[in-house]
Design a protein that fits this description.
With 758 residues, the protein is an alpha/beta fold. It folds into 4 domains: 28 residues; 341 residues, Alpha-Beta Barrel (TIM Barrel), CATH 3.20.20; 212 residues, Glycoside hydrolase family 3 C-terminal domain (Rossmann fold, 3-Layer(aba) Sandwich); 114 residues, Immunoglobulin-like, CATH 2.60.40. 33% of the residues lie in helices and 17% in strands. The chain is built from 22 helices and 27 strands. The strands form 8 sheets. Strands 11-16-15-14-12-13 form a 6-stranded mixed β-sheet. A 5-stranded mixed β-sheet has the order 19-27-26-21-22. Strands 17, 18, 20 and 23 form a 4-stranded antiparallel β-sheet that branches. Helix 6 packs parallel to helix 7 and helix 7 runs parallel beside helix 9. The two termini are 38 Å apart. The chain binds beta-D-glucopyranose. Beta-D-glucopyranose (BGC) binds next to loops.
């Protein structure tokens, strides 16, 4: 027999064995859980649906009283906001040793971009366009979190966001549906590691279902009103991708969708999620979301509990409305007990899949935690991620990279800052373990010619400071007056050859409940930059922030700009490496940077309109006072070298449903420094029964090129990649003309044309 036939047979047999294995496991789980549930009282079943917070109060009030007693009584299904082997063992002991049926607890936590080894914020991680790296980072986070006793992470956040006023854009992968879907899958794979019962896996929780990123006016928790077409085309695919990748749980979101809050939205949580998409895992609400249904105006405590369980929320995070209301609802016949049975079953299934019935502690120990947490390999990965996440936005006359022997004035509130480096939602991360840029410089370049001045506080706006500090920001106004700080900075800068200004947002200015109506660098720091400009010295601007900022003035004023995001535990060292050229930046933006707030929402995959932009014609779709173009488009990011793209060559100009279109391009590094490029593939459907975006990302390739080196890259597209929701909302192909683009960002591309014939 020919070798490939033997291989084929092995594959088929393996496939069958796996399928049989899964069915076996499935039926074993069914039997186990049915038998367990047959012993449970109604109260115990309802208890499984209760998800209180213990420990810290991060995003809202801790409502649950006497959690430990409730655990002993079997009135808690899972907990969040606590970790460490000792704390977890103690609480799990209660469930295992003190409850009647010894059902283990779930332990969840917001592990968003690392557990203790902190990686760049998700928006920064996405800017690496490095899916294997994103997966490895999620794996590392899972290994640490599980060693610290956790078995469930409230991540990935896959909300598509087109409005940088919304503070939570920092928690997601940006504006693109296709890229967001790839990132979602990579993160789920990384967390769950193929088998949830592996003690180093954690269950992912895809959030916030759904459309939370489209909150009106970028104001957190605000309403969402959206056509079904827009949902299906742009916003829903990343959730679906995460679910298809096997995510064990979903979190329903705070926002309403077309008048019905997600937590009470049966269409969303049952008809779409379960019936259409086939999701079989567990749904938890967001923090106090059931209680908030009363504020939304859906009824009293009893009514909203009924609505939530009927809609499809299995676990009630923090509200304890299930605990207090469901039994009465069953007794008064307002609720069929089958809803409770179903939700309880899903919670128990999650526990079963995590192996908690075999080992409720999942091998947690202080020794394992010590070995896993902040291990050398994870710290190295965090530095690699920080390096790859940085985006070079401007580099006039190749001023970067700098010589480490130069006299450089490092100015700005971020230079010695450790706290902000690890960003918002850095959960269990300890900012004291992060090395500031200044410390990294001292370690790497002893005896250097570097000088430092703070120059400004992050903000002098006392109203803002009070708001931020109330929630743990700890931003202290400097003892010196703003004028003195600037004076000192200008004096320091005057003695240097060039200035590196490190400015930006405090990490608490982004993230949850941190929407901003102006998204510029705070005034105190802008004033500093203006003063530095008067020295006439070249200025390199480093930015630390968690959202696209409006940087029009800065872009005109300074010589170079690097976006460093909140880069995590090893960010300071990574920034030093980038400034001095030990690493050539390769990150690309995954969210458009607008020129002004007035352009928002602004995104690359827009529609053409009937009167497309034309500067010279009055009656076209534009502003009188500003161009339509963004400051930096989606996919944008420079390198210390330059890459040249050849014209595109296609293997065919017409493809049919089963063909493969191959688009080939040669990329040449025509600079003097080795570097990595991310070549992006976009398409445009020229004619349809409905309007199509002017560009849609369909793929990308990363290529490392030595100075002077060229490589051919071939992208493959099939009819499947060209499908969309037609006039009848059917996901299908329509024949006709397409444009295909390949380039260094969404704006700067080569172009070719082809036809789809069906
Ligand atoms: C956030 C979620 C988070 C939850 C638990 C909420 O306020 O919206 O993203 O997972 O709190 O901390």
């Amino acid at each position: 027999m020919k070798p490939h036939r033997i291989l084929l047979i092995i594959f088929i047999l393996l496939g069958e064995l796996t399928a049989t294995g899964q069915t076996d496991r499935g039926s074993k789980m069914e039997t186990y859980i049915n038998s367990l549930m047959s012993k449970m009282t109604l109260e115990e079943k309802i208890g499984q649906l209760n998800l209180p917070s213990v420990g810290f109060d991060i995003t809202g009030p801790i409502l649950s009283k006497d959690v430990e007693q409730k655990i002993s009584k079997g009135l808690v299904g899972g907990l969040f906001n606590t970790y460490t082997p000792d704390a977890i063992r103690k609480l799990q002991d209660k469930a295992i040793k003190e409850t009647r049926l010894k059902i283990p607890l779930l332990f969840g936590y917001d592990v968003i971009h690392g557990h203790k080894t902190i990686f760049p914020i998700p928006l920064g991680m996405a800017s690496t366009w490095d899916l294997p790296l994103i997966e490895q980072a999620a794996r590392a986070a899972a290994a640490e979190a599980s060693a610290d006793g956790l078995n469930w992470v409230f991540s990935p956040m896959v909300d598509i966001a087109r409005d940088p006023r919304w503070g939570r854009v920092s928690e997601g992968a940006g504006e693109d549906t296709w890229l967001g879907s790839q990132v979602a899958k990579a993160m789920v794979r990384g967390y769950q590691n193929q088998d949830l019962s592996n003690p180093s896996s954690v269950m992912a929780c895809v959030k916030h279902f759904a459309l939370y990123g489209a909150a009106e006016a970028g104001r957190d928790y605000n309403i969402v009103d959206m056509s079904e077409r827009k949902m299906q085309e742009y916003y829903l695919p990343p959730y679906k991708a995460a679910i298809d990748a096997g995510a064990g749980s979903v979190m329903s979101s705070f926002n309403e969708i077309n008048g019905v809050p997600a937590a009470a939205n049966k269409w969303l949580l049952t008809d779409l999620l379960r019936k259409k998409w086939g999701f079989t895992g567990m749904v938890a609400t967001d923090y106090t979301a059931i209680m908030e249904l009363m504020n939304h105006g859906l009824g009293d405590e009893s009514k909203v509990a009924e609505l939530a369980i009927k809609a499809g929320d299995d676990m009630d995070m923090v509200s304890e409305f299930y605990l207090n209301q469901l039994k009465k609802l069953v007794e008064t016949k307002s609720l069929d007990v089958s809803y409770i049975n179903q939700a309880c079953k899903r919670v128990l299934e999650a526990k079963y899949k995590l192996g908690l019935f075999d080992d409720p502690y999942r091998g947690v120990s202080n020794e394992r935690a010590a070995k896993e947490i902040m291990s050398a390999d994870k710290l190295a990965l965090s530095k690699e991620a920080a390096l790859k996440s940085m985006v070079l936005l401007k580099n006039d006359h190749h001023i970067l990279p700098l010589q480490s022997t130069s006299k450089i004035a490092f100015i700005g509130p971020m230079v010695k800052d450790q706290r902000d480096l690890i960003g918002n939602w850095s959960g269990a991360g300890d900012w004291r373990k992060a090395i500031s840029l200044w410390d990294a410089l001292q370690r790497q370049y002893p005896g250097n010619n570097f000088a430092y001045a703070k120059g400004a506080s992050i903000t002098d706006d006392t109203i803002l400071l009070n708001k931020l500090n109330r929630f743990g920001a700890e931003i202290l106004p400097d003892a010196q007056s703003p004028a003195r700080l600037i004076e000192e900075a200008v004096r320091t800068a005057g003695k240097a050859d060039l200035i590196v200004a490190f400015l930006g947002e405090s990490c608490t200015m982004t993230g949850e409940a941190s929407s901003r109506s102006e998204i510029s660098i705070p005034e105190s720091q802008k004033a500093l930059l203006k003063a530095l400009k008067t020295t006439g010295k070249p200025i390199i601007l480093l930015l630390m922030n968690g959202r696209p900022l409006t940087l029009g003035w800065e872009d005109e004023t300074v010589d170079a700009i690097i976006e460093t995001w909140f880069g995590g535990t090893r960010s300071g060292e990574a920034i030093a490496d980038v400034i001095f050229g030990k690493y050539n930046p390769s990150g690309k933006l995954t969210m458009t940077f607008p020129r002004t707030v007035g352009q928002i929402p602004i995104y690359y995959n827009a529609k053409n309109t009937g009167r497309p932009f034309n500067e010279n014609e009055k009656f076209t779709s534009k502003y009188l006072d500003i161009s339509n173009t963004p400051l930096y488009p989606f996919g944008y990011g420079l390198s210390y070298t330059t890459f040249d793209y050849s014209p595109i060559s296609l293997n065919k100009t017409t493809i049919n449903a089963s063909d493969k279109l191959e688009a080939t391009i040669t990329i040449t590094n025509n600079g003097k420094i080795d570097g990595e490029e991310t070549a992006q593939l976009y398409v445009r459907d020229m004619v349809g029964t409905v309007t199509r975006p002017v560009k849609e990302l369909k793929g990308f390739k990363k290529v490392y090129l030595k100075a002077g080196e060229s490589k051919r890259l071939t992208f493959t597209l099939t009819a499947e990649d060209l499908k969309f929701y037609d006039i009848r909302m059917k996901y299908t192909n329509e024949p006709g003309a397409f444009k295909l683009f390949i380039g260094t960002n969404s704006n700067d591309v080569k172009e070719a044309e082809f036809n789809l014939a069906l």
